[in-house]
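Q: Hi! First time asking for a complex rather than a single chain. Here are the components, and I think there are four in total. Is that enough to go on?
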Amino acid sequence: MAMKALTKPRQATIYQVAERAGVSIATVSRALREDTPVTDETRRRVREAAAELQFTPSRSARSLAEGRHAANGIVFPDLVGPYFAEVLLGYEAVAAGLGSSVLILTTRDRRDAADAVRDLARRVDGLAVHGRTVGDDLIAALAGTVPVVLIARDPVPGVDTVRTGNRRTARALAEHLLGHGHHRFAFLGDPDSSPDFAGRYAGLRDGLQAARANAEKQGNAGKRAGRRDDVALHLVPETGFDLEAGERAARSLLTRRNPPQALVCANDELALGALRAAAAAGLDVPGDLAITGWDDLLAARFAGLTTVAQPMRSLGATAARWLDRRIDDPSPAARRRVLPTRLVVRGSCGDHHL
Amino acid sequence: MAMKALTKPRQATIYQVAERAGVSIATVSRALREDTPVTDETRRRVREAAAELQFTPSRSARSLAEGRHAANGIVFPDLVGPYFAEVLLGYEAVAAGLGSSVLILTTRDRRDAADAVRDLARRVDGLAVHGRTVGDDLIAALAGTVPVVLIARDPVPGVDTVRTGNRRTARALAEHLLGHGHHRFAFLGDPDSSPDFAGRYAGLRDGLQAARANAEKQGNAGKRAGRRDDVALHLVPETGFDLEAGERAARSLLTRRNPPQALVCANDELALGALRAAAAAGLDVPGDLAITGWDDLLAARFAGLTTVAQPMRSLGATAARWLDRRIDDPSPAARRRVLPTRLVVRGSCGDHHL
DNA sequence: CTGAAAGCGCTAACAT
DNA sequence: ATGTTAGCGCTTTCAG
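A: Yes, that's all I need. Here is the structure of the assembled complex.
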């Protein structure tokens, strides 16, 4: 009966490889990497010895000596739902291709978020920070230490930022809904809970106001439908992000005396929840109530939800690419980019006749 | 005009803090941690100096000195779709709560997957490896170096494994479908592409065979519907995992001379794709064709897809918990656990009358 | 309670 | 081409 190992099997060090191959540790260090001046024969011997000892260089020792980690970090507010996974996917793919490991951190439910992010910053060569995770002050402080790129967040002076378009497309959505003849609107979602949500709400408001102003200017306010031309926008600052939150908020909203005709939701999950609430209330969508979302999740297709598609993977991929570039050369001015979004019209916003 | 900094702003070191506080670096090291014997006054001075210098200990130096990383890694074959995100979510939440950073690696599209995993293993104190990412030989080798826990994968001797139930529930699914009167079955998905898929296929096959054997034993094979009682199972080893793959495979399958009555898909995405293909072919689901999936994604609810729910977050959470435990004490025997899954019957598998 | 000093394992000058 | 050696920044005995 074999004895159970009592001591944890320690990894071989560069010294052992050197001894076994009959060379110095410096030679081992060189032989194990590419493009270093070593005789083929020596390299062969070293590699052989390394293989026999199953040697892999200690990452922390190497990081300490090199002064870099060969790793990037990404900070999310949460990981619930398909959205973050898509952003992460784009990020990881690029980072890995560039030779960086990826560290991930979620700030949700952590009171010590700032500390966690600060700690993360010491483990990486660059940091991508998503949305509302930590304050601008910390971002600024971090940026003085390590390259940072912001994702889906309002810019901080001197820091790169990648976002997807919210206001313009939200305005387009408003116009589309107005075209369906809706007048009483409600926005479901808390603008303060996310920069993206804030942009979507602002865009909707803008679009609605512009339409009203336009109508008045053309003096045909009365021609159409009398006073009903007064478009109204009601804000339902639901702080949740998921289906349950949407269902709950919509349920109470729909039982009011004067429910909206069109419910614009800050994301698809909220909209999907609203859809359920509407069904439960016996309401016809879009007949009695129009509902729209944002993100174009897979479920949106099957729910026939009108929504807005945004390039989630590109968001992550761009962040990773920019980070890598800035690690090489921190000097260029901060970059900002807004990735295009696209209105995806399906059945939930109103009838579309050909 | 301020000059642009030409040198990257170096972080303060423990030496600078020590000098500023008028103590030795050893004292700084102690004062900055908890439960260490230092005078309150000294600690105060040191903390003050550290704060002024914005000092945070170098992670690689600390790791090298301590011989640990305070980080865990998780390896996925891919990151596409909601499934992996859920597993990761469960993992990250637990790991973070236990004070470990999380490194994530995807092997998809990498020919150097083994190297990447080996590299990752040197950056962490423990490693969770999901499904078909790398071979058993590498797992075994890794396990000799760092604690490893396998997720959704067949066990490797001496290594912890957490999975979700496939065979039993797949058998239940088979019975349910037989109950609907279906005889000609097809399984969409490649059993060789994932241990989970293999289990689901095997379970379906078992369930179908058991039913046939049972029917013969009871001698009522002819009583029911004559020779049509011969249940058949056709395998469509589609290697993709996503909706497009499912749609493509289903399309070609449905144009055959003798299409199946029930299409059991290896996951929801494939099933959702099949649903689209069926709709495009003018087929009624479940009238002309029953379709089932696996995972119970959000979209499945809205598509009315019969599927199987599995505790994805628990999968990740359990892995993280076990890993942490094994890092503390590597000696206990390997653990194995199969988390329960649950059949979720909706409309796509057949009519359900009350 | 605090300081001195020895590593942790590797890379990168600097020699040879 | 290869060896020597000085760090990288921190933790941790071991003294005091």
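A: Chain B touches chain A through 57 residues (CB under 8 Å). Let me know if you'd like any chain examined more closely.
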